[in-house]
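haha ok so turns out i had the wrong file open the whole time. this is the CORRECT one, sorry everyone. sequence first:
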Amino acid sequence: MSSTLEVIGIGSLTGSLLPPLTAIVQKPKWSANVKRIVAVIAAALGGIITVASTGGLNEFTQPITALGGIAAVIAASQTTYDLIWKPSKIAPTVEAATSSSPSTAG
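then structure:
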């Protein structure tokens, strides 16, 4: 069993690295709302996986730890996307490069 701070710390790291991976799935032609929904779902799934891999399924018996870990992944992924991955053009470039139809990154 992991401590809440450990789960939140690992969740923050996971969320920080998640936006370029999410960009592989997203397509440039999708609306901003669809992209946002996909990103939040991916982050929530990443949070569930992070919580489970950090302390096993038993972590879900502790709601503060489980929800804290999931929230940390969601918050970190959205924040780092807005502050790092989008301005650096890394995530939009990955999105455009992995799209089946030619489009501009942006």
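The mean pLDDT is 90.
again sry for the mixup
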